[in-house]
Write the structure tokens for this entry.
Amino acid sequence: MNRIAVTEDMRSRILNNIKNLDFPTRKAKSHPLPVRYMTMAAYFALFIVGTIGPPNFLGSLPSKDPTYVQSGVLERTEVSSLSELSQAVGFQVDTLKNLPFDIEEIVYTAYGTEMAEIKYVGAIQSLVFCKAIGAADPSGDYSYPDTVILGFSHGSATLKGESGLYCLASWQDDTYSYSIRISDALSDIEWMHIFDSLG
């Protein structure tokens, strides 16, 4: 093969052309190998869970529906009196007094043998009182921005609401949990008047 002679001028032009060429740069790996495998494993796990069916996480989620307490959806039975309500749930249920409105109707409802509900209905207001077995808040309502603890003769209750007015009260003793939800928010002093009537 004939020898090719490269002059100094040719050499500088070749080097110049090489410098000006736009070579594609090799991108670094976006993730190290173990991270890629972990990502693939996570996608695979999601696929398996979606195929088999998700676990029952819903049992611990709060809900505004009073039929829903921690054990799940309960059978709803409406009865005609306080004594029938106590008999249906299997524990003593007391009535509330000193309500801030005149009562026109009272609705008694048992949810399985775990929760009793009494709904007091007035002309423009209503109040729902719940008593349930266990420590979970039977109201299932966690949506209020402000809370305050109010002491009364049988313990203390957590009031929930906003701007100094509260729509919900919840408390518990050694065996039961309780809640009162009212349609029109009350001050803590008005709530104390209701708690004073508890037996």
Q: What stands out?
A: The CA atoms of residues 33 and 39 lie 10 Å apart. The helical segments are 8-20, 33-52, 82-89, 188-195. Confidence is low (pLDDT under 50) at residues 47-71.
